[in-house]
């Protein structure tokens, strides 16, 4: 498998840019086949991307069988993740920017070179050890999007502590649940954060969360709260509090990293958990790093010296894998943005791209759809000529949105990669590799090397050829979550019980006649209209392809004859005033596009949709409103803007 590690390929001109083509379509096919048939060989070779303190002797020890579920990669190897992301680059790129930080306020920025990153992380690692944090301890990070968030992740990795980043927008209650569940010994936070020109308190939520945690039967173990000064707001001060900016600089800027086993946990990350307690997915050190390093390099075709911008929050897995670990393991320059894509106006993303000459830009469809509400504003104030690759993640990208992203935002000069993956998978699982696989707008297309996706029906029978079913993965990959913290049973129940011997993603997908995959949405959201199964993605894409529509969410509601009928929530474009005529036009539009079975029964116009804090539509809530059952909405704690729900209930159509 000699060509599986990146090789300096031919320099070719694509989209008018010079790019280093590593593979062509035929080579991809060949390498993909080899990566599956000799899976251990492939991942054994990819593991050379990182430095091992003690080399591993076995690559893989995995069973997906329910009774004997275990997932281990490189299990007798030892490494340090931080050394791989920082120290080993000092020889060749100590002066290169590791992190470019762009403030919420467009006048604020900071560039951190690899040597500065080393010093910052070492001081913090020493400071944490001085507070008694050692290998295996859990540390909660409740941080704004500031460089200290990355320093803290890397410092934990350096001393072998396990970080759990809690999104800064979560409430004290959500924070308390996580502090208790992982029995954290330390919290690293800030006084407050800047987002969209406002300051949002963080430290007061930590104080409250610790009070809540104290009252729970398990109590909490937090002995230190390290507080970075970001917003400048005054805060209450307690015995266990320490100012980051005073305490950390008193420690030495060198630190001897602690070797960890490949299977030792690097972090725990809680998924929002649509029902019940959030799941603390536990990721490994060795396998996770190999996987994020490999997927980053291939998916974004990263070339030395380029600037990579992933516009996610470090509170999500995307921020872990593609702001911090993947880019830094590759010695890349990663841009970290403090604010929201729409502040001070819709042109901000393009302006940041011009200012820092961003080459690769990775963002969620929800943000692209927001830019599209006023296209002139969104792209009028920037050139964006540095861009080479555009990535999408988090939800299915509607074909029309893909096209705009490619044609207008990327000026037809960029490769677009739609990347499908999950918190549970650690890294990208499906994507059309740039310059290699010809993309189809809206399709995640092809599996990454070593990944074996398959479609099955309810009875777990494998569907061949063109098909529509549950998306499962047949064999493990190094970046896969190993368990749910403290709850292995739940891990097995959630992911390995629906389809025996397979990892069940919870998503549905279609495979087209060319063998390419299209994610149709979560299987819980699938509509069944008169016996026809419709994915939410398909119907929503048809609705948003109407020129007057900005965004849409589709759910089913009970119907006597059809079983389920279609209810559509629609946000019009800026300046459009919806009326009955437009409603009719939109219904005809969808019927024409998808056929009569997909014709919406109810169309409710709205100013907003209920979204999670990471920008995903919460269809669970919309289903309740559509069914006129809004009295029992369930858990709404992860909702970004609760007011939206009140408006939707007030104007509901099914009464
Ligand atoms: P929870 O599991 O707590 O409900 P979540 O699933 O939204 O939260 P993530 O792990 O961040 O949390 O998101 C993974 C899910 O996002 C996938 O299972 C899929 O439904 C969706 N998704 C991510 N990327 C894509 C993509 N490129 N195309 C289609 N869907 C995607
Ligand atoms: Mg999920």
TrEMBL record:
EC code: 6.2.1.1
InterPro entries assigned to the protein according to its UniProt record, in alphabetical order: Ac_CoA_lig, ACAS_N, AMP-bd_C, AMP-bd_C_sf, AMP-binding_CS, AMP-dep_synth/lig_dom, ANL_N_sf
Annotated ranges, domain Acetyl-coenzyme A synthetase N-terminal: 28-85
Limits of the AMP-dependent synthetase/ligase domain: 88-473
A Pfam family reported for this protein in Swiss-Prot or TrEMBL: ACAS_N
Molecular function per GO: ligase activity
Entry keyword annotation includes Cell membrane: no
Sequence ranges assigned to domain AMP-binding enzyme C-terminal in this UniProt record: 538-616
Tree of life domain: Bacteria
First-level EC class: ligase
Keywords assigned by UniProt, alphabetized: Acetylation, ATP-binding, Ligase, Nucleotide-binding
Family named by the database record: Belongs to the ATP-dependent AMP-binding enzyme family.
NCBIfam families linked: Ac_CoA_lig_AcsA (TIGR02188), PRK00174.1 (NF001208)
Descriptive protein name: Acetate--CoA ligase
Species whose genome carries this gene: Allohahella marinimesophila
Native organism taxonomy: Bacteria, Pseudomonadati, Pseudomonadota, Gammaproteobacteria, Oceanospirillales
Gene: acs
């Amino acid at each position: 498998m000699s060509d599986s590690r990146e090789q300096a390929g031919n320099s070719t001109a694509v989209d008018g840019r010079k790019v280093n083509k590593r593979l062509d379509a035929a080579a991809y096919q060949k390498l993909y086949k080899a990566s599956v048939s000799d899976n251990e060989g492939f991942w054994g070779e990819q593991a050379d991307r990182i430095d091992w303190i003690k080399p591993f002797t076995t690559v893989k020890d995995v069973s997906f069988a329910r009774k004997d579920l275990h997932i281990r990669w490189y299990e007798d190897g030892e490494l340090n993740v931080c050394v791989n992301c920082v120290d080993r680059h000092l020889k060749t790129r100590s002066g290169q920017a590791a992190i470019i930080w762009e403030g919420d306020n467009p006048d604020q920025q900071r560039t951190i070179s690899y040597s500065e990153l080393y010093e910052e992380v070492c001081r913090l690692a020493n400071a944490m050890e001085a507070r008694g944090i050692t290998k295996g301890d859990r540390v909660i990070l409740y941080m704004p999007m500031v460089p200290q968030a990355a320093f803290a992740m890397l410092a934990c990795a350096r001393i072998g502590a396990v970080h759990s980043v809690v999104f800064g927008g979560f409430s004290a209650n959500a924070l308390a649940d996580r502090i208790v569940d992982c029995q954290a010994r330390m919290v690293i936070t800030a006084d407050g954060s800047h987002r969209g020109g406002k300051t949002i308190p963080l430290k007061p939520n930590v104080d409250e969360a610790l009070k809540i945690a104290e009252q729970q039967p398990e109590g909490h173990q937090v002995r230190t709260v390290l507080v970075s000064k970001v917003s400048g707001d005054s805060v209450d001060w307690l015995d266990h509090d320490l100012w980051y900016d005073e305490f950390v600089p008193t420690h030495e800027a060198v630190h001897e990293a602690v070797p960890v086993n490949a299977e030792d946990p690097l972090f725990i990350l809680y998924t929002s958990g649509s029902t019940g307690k959030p799941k603390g997915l536990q990721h490994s050190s060795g396998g996770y790093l190999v996987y994020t390093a490999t997927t980053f390099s291939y998916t974004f075709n990263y070339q030395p010296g380029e600037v990579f911008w992933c516009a996610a929050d470090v509170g999500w897995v995307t921020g872990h894998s593609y702001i911090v670990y993947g880019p830094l393991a590759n010695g890349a320059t990663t841009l970290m943005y403090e604010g929201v894509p729409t502040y001070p106006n819709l042109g901000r993303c393009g302006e940041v791209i011009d200012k820092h000459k961003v080459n690769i830009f990775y963002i969620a469809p929800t943000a692209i759809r927001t830019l599209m509400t006023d296209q002139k504003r969104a792209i009028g104030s920037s050139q964006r000529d540095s861009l080479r690759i555009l990535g999408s993640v988090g939800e299915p990208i509607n074909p029309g949105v893909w096209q705009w992203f490619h044609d207008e935002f990327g000026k037809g000069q960029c490769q677009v990669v739609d990347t499908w993956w999950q918190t549970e998978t650690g890294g990208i699982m499906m994507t059309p590799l740039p310059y290699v696989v010809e993309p189809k707008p809206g399709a995640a297309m092809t599996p990454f090397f070593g990944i074996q996706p398959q479609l099955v029906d309810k009875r777990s029978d494998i569907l061949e050829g063109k098909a529509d079913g549950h998306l499962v993965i047949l064999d493990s990959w190094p970046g896969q979550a190993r368990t749910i913290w403290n709850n292995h049973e739940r891990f097995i129940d959630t992911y390995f019980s629906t389809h025996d011997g397979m990892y069940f993603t919870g998503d549905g997908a279609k495979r087209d006649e060319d063998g390419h995959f299209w994610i149709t949405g979560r299987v819980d959201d699938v509509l069944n209209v008169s016996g026809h199964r419709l994915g939410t993605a398909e119907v929503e894409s048809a609705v948003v392809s109407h020129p007057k529509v900005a965004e849409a969410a589709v759910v089913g509601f009970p119907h006597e004859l059809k079983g389920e009928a279609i209810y559509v929530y629609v946000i019009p474009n800026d300046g459009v005033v919806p009326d009955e005529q437009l409603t009719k036009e939109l219904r005809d539009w969808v019927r024409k596009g998808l056929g009569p079975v997909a014709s919406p029964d109810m169309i409710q116009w709205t100013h907003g949709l209920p979204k999670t804090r990471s920008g995903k539509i919460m269809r669970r809530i919309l289903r309740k409103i559509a069914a006129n059952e809004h009295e029992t909405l369930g858990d709404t704690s992860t909702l970004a803007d609760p007011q939206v729900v009140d408006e939707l209930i007030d104007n509901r159509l099914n009464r």
